[in-house]
Amino acid sequence: MKVPLLDLKQQYATIKEEIRKVTEEIYASQYFILGPQVERLEKQVAEYCQAEYAVGVSSGSDALIIALMVAGIGAQDLVLTTPYSFFATAGAIARVGARPVFADIDPGTYNLAPVEIEQAIENLSADEKARLKGIIPVHLYGQCAEMDPVLQIAARHGLVVIEDAAQAIGSEYKGRRAGSIGDFGCFSFFPSKNLGAFGDGGIVTTSSEKLYDGLKIFRNHGAAPKYYHRFIGGNFRLDALQAGIVSVKLKYLDNWSRARQANAENYRKLFADAGLEQIELPLSIQDRHIYNQFVIRVAHKRNDLRQHLQQSGIGSEVYYPVPLHLQECFKFLGYGQGDFPVSEAAADQTLALPIYPELTDDQQAYVVDSIKKYFS
Ligand SMILES: *Cc1c(COP(=O)(O)O)cnc(C)c1O
User: Would you kindly state where each structural domain of the chain is located, as residue ranges?
Assistant: First the structure.
């Protein structure tokens, strides 16, 4: 049996006609950049995420960069985040000229640990504390970070809160949707995300009219009005084809999220029945986990298990093998091995299993059975 990590072809087959219709409308209009399709998607996503506004942008990475720019964060500034995330989280901070400051994660949820945030701020000098301007909590794998403590710490230190919700569209924390909790919510439409485009794309949510105006200006090279540049922004625009496609898919997102949640419950049952004590299952403690990934932890020889699964026709992935503080390009930050032991252990031990909505019970049983065979 073959079980890919992700199979987007099955999903496409169910929406093919609608996609064809919307893309043909766009071809006929010859209106490709921003415009009515993007505006419609922005309204839909703002409503879906319980935010006042949304601004379509070129990618999830650019969503983070433009949010930092609009927040006025740049050279000399510090921004706190997690070392256990996709590279763009910290890359965006460095790209605007600021310095990433890392704090370790919680071993159960893989999200920023509030006590570690406090500690990381405590470790800064008085001068560095004064230059700390923002915090980027990541809602990793589709589950919201512990946002109440993040907001409290941010209020105490005057920090802008930028949610990296690239993996978490529709997830909730105490009844609040990801992207509606901080000052900005940054989303990605990379094809493998729960709401994926047919190329690159992203969106930023906010409930502040002032920040919304800033996002629209920075998205277009900081021009307001046209050809009069108040700021140095960039080309962060979303194109109409991606917006039209994402808009079609958004209608189905809740069904797809429910299917992922059902698959997660099914895995829990299958793992419990198999009595696999060597495997630690993902913690689900927030209100609505949307399972962009289902990540298990294997204390020893994770890579051997991954290879065994591959030989059995099962796709899996390591998100992420190298924590950000140990990346070559961040050597200049001065961090080293042992600085964030929880993140380092996660990088060595975690493995993402197939969880996509169309996954069948038989395929899941085969995955768990293959893991059982490996351990016996
Ligand atoms: C995917 C992702 C991004 C970047 O999104 P792109 O659209 O690929 O640029 C940023 N942060 C996290 C946590 C992600 O998973």
Answer: 8-104+111-250, 253-375
Q: Which amino acid is at 217?
A: I
* Closest ligand 1 atom to 92 CA: 10
Q: Is 320 in the pocket of ligand 1 (CB under 6 A)?
A: no
Minimum CA distance residue for ligand 1 atom 14: 166
Q: State the CATH class of domain 8-104+111-250.
A: alpha beta
pLDDT tens for each residue of 248-301:
999 999 999 999 999 999 999 999 999 998 999 999 999 999 999 999 999 999
Assessment of whether the complete model's pTM goes beyond 0.85: yes
**What's the 305 CA to ligand 1 centre distance in angstroms?**
27
- Domain 253-375, CATH number (from 3.90.1150.10, 3.40.50.2000, 2.40.10.220, 3.40.630.30): 3.90.1150.10
| Ligand 1 pocket, mutate which of 171, 187, 188, 319 (most atoms under 8 A from CB) | 188
Tell me the angle at which helices 253-274 and 361-375 cross, rounded to the nearest 10 degrees.
Answer: 40
The DSSP annotation for 247-278 comes to HHHHTTHHHHHHHHHHHHHHHHHHHHHHT-TT
The pLDDT > 70 percentage for the chain reads 100
How far is residue 309's CA from residue 93's CA, in Å, rounded to a whole number?
36
Is any atom of ligand 1 closer than 6 Å to the C-beta of 180?
Answer: no
